[in-house]
């Protein structure tokens, strides 16, 4: 009776506590829905229609064109649906659709190699980014409180500066007569310049560099939440520091690790600028293949088929990531 | 938190941030190089900046980029804020899953796919490519970023404020403009800034959707980079980096100062009673 | 339970006993469902003009939902709500003549105190001169005259609470709704503010409806209390009736501390009832009007302060006495609570006022004592 906020009857009846507020809200019938019935309709429609028109419909078109065949015409594919004839035009065009482009993708091993090497490069560079990012995030989370906002700001800042510029900055460093080789020769580690630019190593460096903020930020946010008394408790119970790191810190940072890895892996698979500028002709990645099919070979149907396959490849990690995020958010609440 | 960082932590911070910043610093330093070579230092000069001012093509591209950024960021902010309101406030409706999917997908979708698909749309409807097509493309993907930023602001928003306004006789639309909007404004502005820089940076989507006379700055830089590294590009990159950095730092300082002032006032209020 | 001193002596006020009186607010067969969850379950309630009514219950009992339906933030799934005989269905919250004080206060952070209080008046389109004078009046009512230009974050918790109160009173609503208005204040400030609320209500002669989970608060401020559980009102009565004549085990246990003994009615003559408690193995005399008949299972509930303890068996007529051992003593300052073990599985509590200072406690741990109470001290509960 002394603390009215925690009366025992409250605790006893916890099973009757209603679902959380956000689930209780029923905007459709809520008299406080700030828009009213027609307002609600308009509010939903405007962004919805925009996204349908400029995001979803384009994908349908990509899918359609991937079933067409290339032609020397404007637009450079056949058949073209004759909308003047309505559904009949659609029907006639549909009869000429075929899976030839997809069969072509499986027959020419260039595409296979491009897909596999994209996944491989993305996977390896994700792991490397984790290796580089974890100590940085850990150092940030353990830095004095007053530094932390500045440190976070410093990680975010490169994200705001142009991607292209950041990739470009590495060309001058990694070139055969570039600054890295000059420095290494000057110190005497090597006598002959290393060939780094136009190899996969340059691509790894570019991806690590460009996507490091995506890895560090989620890592930092889970490490920063980590209660230091947990580590003290582990050490108090006789766990040596390195073991505490593996048994307490790493498991608790896992949500951040997973989120960071997805955030690096998914965009890295379809990356174009980095392999194009740093990887040269020797690096095969699917984003680049698509670009070349489209701009150089002007084979729009094959480019579309490449895009569809890339999308299918990415659907699984994207869905996994989304599930992980919803679970993480629920866990936070 | 330990008050003094350990040597290990300090080293990882120094190495990590050197890795992040050194390439940019080198790029900036060599934009002031006298020599045409970007790897050998030959003395200080600002001649490459002067040369930029003579390069009309580059200036034209910069102007196009700026206009596209301004219009697409503004449009994306309006659409993204609406989308955030739908996601945060409208509960269930027909096709909600599809809607939130379309908001999140562009964030993880490879740019090549986004660029290609929009281009094919514009070809299908026989639309000439140029300023407007790039603008629409940029609006479409940056509105999703705006929606996420504004939504996170909305989810931290005390709904009883809106209820209180209505309880005091304020009709819904007026409540939005007098109560909701002032509260989410920082998020909306941050969304605008994000959309603007995204548009400023984009190469891939713009390349697919540009037409004659609508070459953007990143496209221009890209075509020159392929020909080799030159101090001129370093100079233009430096200008872009400096503009963005100043903008971001100013914005964060402003919000920081406001927050500090607020905290100070809260402390005073608590001390008085 | 220590009862708080009341504010000014109240006039005799009991319109609910007058059958000719029309209710000011009426909830008629209200049900509210959120999906499968029934928040309010076929509930009816009448509240009278100038009444200070409290909805009391634990979290999730539906009290807040009921209030939000009156304010217009939720629409009832079934049933009707009347205000002065007018059905409120379809009237949006911004057109209802009721105002609410929110638990979070919901002060607009971007407006200063003055602007916050003026907000509702502006919405009514009052001339600015009148708004100004009304705002001043409200500021003096809540004693915040010097704070007109402050922003909410520049105020202390107690000041914010008073601004919120002033803002909801500024429009002179027909009903003021208070949603856990004092939950965020510390104990001392909360007790002061409770008295201020009573004074304010007397002064403004308005109808107040308060939602609270704090039974002491409800007892202090309200004319009548509705104790709610699982979307239903279990008892709607004055604080005295709720405390002394609870109609169910839930109400008895929710308000204050109480000893409950299960038993069976063995004899009944008008109000004189005999009950057998198997746990004590003895017959008990109770004088209480009850609907229970001979053979029915019922519970006997006695407040600890109505229990006495002594070394000798009291021999007065009409007194129940059982023997037990002092198991525990909780010294609270003003009173001590004795836990007396009367059976292997039953411990009863008795409250003894500490009337003298520096007295060696006459009854102490492990003493064998008699626990006694008058036959009219207990209440028979059938549900």
From TrEMBL, chain A:
Residues 1-11 have a biased composition (Polar residues). SUPFAM superfamilies: MetI-like. InterPro entries: MetI-like, MetI-like_sf. CDD domains: TM_PBP2. It is a multi-pass membrane protein. Residues 115-321 form the ABC transmembrane type-1 domain. The chain crosses the membrane at residues 41-62, 114-138, 150-171, 183-212, 252-274, 300-321. Pfam families: BPD_transp_1. It is found in: Cell membrane. This is Putrescine transport system permease protein. Belongs to the binding-protein-dependent transport system permease family. CysTW subfamily. Coiled coil: none annotated. Residues 1-33 are annotated as: Disordered. Keywords: Cell membrane, Membrane, Transmembrane, Transmembrane helix, Transport.
TrEMBL record, chain B:
The chain crosses the membrane at residues 7-32, 68-89, 101-125, 184-208, 233-254. Residues 62-254 form the ABC transmembrane type-1 domain. The keyword Transmembrane helix applies. Its main location: membrane. Pfam families: BPD_transp_1. It comes from the Bacteria. It is a multi-pass membrane protein. It is found in: Cell membrane. Keywords: Cell membrane, Membrane, Transmembrane, Transmembrane helix, Transport. Belongs to the binding-protein-dependent transport system permease family. CysTW subfamily. This is Putrescine transport system permease protein. It comes from Pseudovibrio ascidiaceicola.
Automatic annotation (TrEMBL), chain C:
GO terms for molecular function: ATP binding. Residues 25-255 form the ABC transporter domain. It catalyses: ATP + H2O + polyamine-[polyamine-binding protein]Side 1 = ADP + phosphate + polyamineSide 2 + [polyamine-binding protein]Side 1. The complex is composed of two ATP-binding proteins (PotA), two transmembrane proteins (PotB and PotC) and a solute-binding protein (PotD). Part of the ABC transporter complex PotABCD involved in spermidine/putrescine import. Responsible for energy coupling to the transport system. Belongs to the ABC transporter superfamily. Spermidine/putrescine importer (TC 3.A.1.11.1) family. This is Spermidine/putrescine import ATP-binding protein PotA.
């Amino acid at each position: 009776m002394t603390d009215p906020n925690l009366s025992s009857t409250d605790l006893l009846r916890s099973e009757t506590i209603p679902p959380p507020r956000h689930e209780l809200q029923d905007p459709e019938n809520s008299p406080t829905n700030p828009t009213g019935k027609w307002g609600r309709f308009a509010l939903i429609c405007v962004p919805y229609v925009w996204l349908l028109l400029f995001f979803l419909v384009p994908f349908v078109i990509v899918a359609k064109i991937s079933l067409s065949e290339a032609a020397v015409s404007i637009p450079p594919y056949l058949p073209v649906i004759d909308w003047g004839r309505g559904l009949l035009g659609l029907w006639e065009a549909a009869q000429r659709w075929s899976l030839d482009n997809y069969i072509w993708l499986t027959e020419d091993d260039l595409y296979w190699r491009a897909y596999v090497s994209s996944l491989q490069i993305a996977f390896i560079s994700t792991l490397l980014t984790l290796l580089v990012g974890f100590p940085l995030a850990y150092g940030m989370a353990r830095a004095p409180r007053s530094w932390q906002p500045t440190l976070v700001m410093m990680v975010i800042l490169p994200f705001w500066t142009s991607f292209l510029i950041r990739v470009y900055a590495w060309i001058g460093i990694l070139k055969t007569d570039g600054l890295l080789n000059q420095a290494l020769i000057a110190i005497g580690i090597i006598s002959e310049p290393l060939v780094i630019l136009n190899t996969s190593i340059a691509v790894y460096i570019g991806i690590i560099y460009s996507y490091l903020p995506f890895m560090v930020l989620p890592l930092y946010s889970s490490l920063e939440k980590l209660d230091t008394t947990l580590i003290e408790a582990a050490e108090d119970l006789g766990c040596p520091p390195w073991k505490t790191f593996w048994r307490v810190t790493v498991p608790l940072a896992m949500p951040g690790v997973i989120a960071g890895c997805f955030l690096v892996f998914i965009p890295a698979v379809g990356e174009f600028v980095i392999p194009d500028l740093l990887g040269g002709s020797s690096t095969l990645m699917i984003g680049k293949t698509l670009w070349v099919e489209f701009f150089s070979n002007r084979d729009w149907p094959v480019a579309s088929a490449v895009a569809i396959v890339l999308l299918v490849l990415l659907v699984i990690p994207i869905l996994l990531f989304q599930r992980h995020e919803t679970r993480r958010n629920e866990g936070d609440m | 938190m330990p008050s003094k960082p350990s040597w290990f932590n300090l080293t990882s911070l120094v190495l990590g941030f050197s890795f992040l910043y050194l390439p940019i610093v080198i790029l900036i330093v060599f934009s002031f190089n006298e020599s045409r070579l970007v790897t050998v230092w030959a003395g200080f000069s600002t001649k490459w900046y002067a040369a930029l001012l003579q390069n009309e093509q580059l200036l034209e591209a910069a102007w196009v980029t700026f206009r596209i950024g301004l219009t697409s960021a503004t449009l994306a902010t309006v659409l993204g804020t609406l989308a955030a309101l739908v996601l945060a406030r409208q509960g269930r409706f027909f096709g909600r899953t599809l809607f939130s999917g379309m908001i999140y997908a562009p964030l993880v979708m490879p740019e090549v796919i986004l660029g290609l698909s929009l281009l094919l749309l514009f070809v299908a409807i026989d639309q000439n490519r140029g300023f407007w097509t790039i603008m629409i493309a940029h609006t479409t993907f940056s509105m999703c970023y705006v929606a996420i930023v504004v939504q996170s602001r909305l989810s931290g928003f005390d709904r009883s404020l809106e209820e209180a306004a209505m309880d005091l006789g304020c009709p819904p639309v007026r409540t939005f403009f007098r109560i909701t909007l002032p509260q989410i404004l920082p998020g909306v502005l941050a969304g605008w800034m994000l959309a603007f820089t995204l548009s400023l940076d984009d190469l891939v989507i713009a390349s697919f959707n540009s037409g004659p006379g609508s070459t953007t700055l990143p496209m221009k830089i890209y075509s020159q980079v392929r020909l080799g590294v030159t101090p001129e590009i370093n100079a233009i990159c430096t200008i872009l980096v400096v503009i963005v950095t100043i903008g971001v730092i100013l914005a964060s300082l402003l919000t920081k100062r406001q927050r500090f002032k607020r905290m100070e006032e809260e402390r005073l209020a608590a001390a008085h009673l | 339970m220590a009862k708080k001193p009341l504010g000014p002596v109240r006039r005799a006020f009991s319109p609910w006993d007058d059958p000719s009186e029309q209710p000011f607010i009426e909830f008629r067969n209200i049900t509210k469902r959120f999906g499968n969850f029934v928040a309010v379950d076929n509930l009816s309630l009448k509240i009278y003009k100038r009444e200070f009514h409290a909805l009391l219950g634990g979290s999730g009992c539906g009290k807040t939902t009921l209030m939000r339906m009156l304010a217009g933030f939720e629409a009832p799934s079934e049933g009707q709500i009347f205000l002065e005989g007018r059905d409120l269905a379809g009237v949006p919250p911004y057109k209802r003549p009721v105002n609410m004080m929110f638990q979070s206060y919901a002060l607009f952070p971007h407006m200063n105190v003055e602007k916050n209080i003026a907000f509702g008046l502006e919405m009514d389109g009052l001339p600015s001169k009148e708004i100004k004078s009304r705002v001043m009046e409200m500021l003096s009512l809540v004693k915040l005259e010097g704070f007109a230009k402050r922003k909410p974050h520049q105020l202390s918790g107690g000041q914010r609470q008073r601004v919120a109160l002033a803002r909801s009173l500024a429009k002179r609503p027909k009903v003021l709704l208070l949603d856990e208005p004092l939950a965020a204040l510390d104990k001392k400030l909360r007790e002061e503010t409770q008295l201020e609320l009573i004074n304010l209500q007397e002064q403004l002669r308005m109808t107040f409806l308060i939602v609270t989970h704090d039974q002491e608060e409800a007892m202090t401020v309200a004319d009548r209390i509705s104790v709610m559980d699982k979307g239903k009102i279990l008892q709607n009565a004055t604080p005295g009736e709720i405390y002394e004549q609870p109609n169910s085990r839930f109400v008895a246990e929710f308000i204050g501390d109480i000893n409950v003994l299960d038993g069976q009615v063995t004899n009944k003559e008008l109000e004189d009832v005999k009950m057998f408690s198997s746990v004590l193995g003895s017959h008990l005399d109770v004088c209480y009007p009850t609907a229970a008949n001979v053979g029915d299972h019922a519970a006997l509930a006695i407040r600890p302060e109505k229990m006495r303890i002594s070394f000798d068996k009291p021999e007065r007529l009409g007194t129940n006495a059982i023997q037990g051992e002092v198991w525990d003593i909780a010294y609270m300052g003003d009173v001590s609570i004795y836990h007396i073990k009367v059976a292997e599985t039953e411990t009863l509590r008795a409250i003894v006022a500490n009337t003298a200072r520096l007295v060696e406690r006459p009854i102490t741990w492990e003493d064998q004592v008699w626990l006694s109470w008058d036959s009219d001290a207990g209440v028979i509960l059938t549900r």
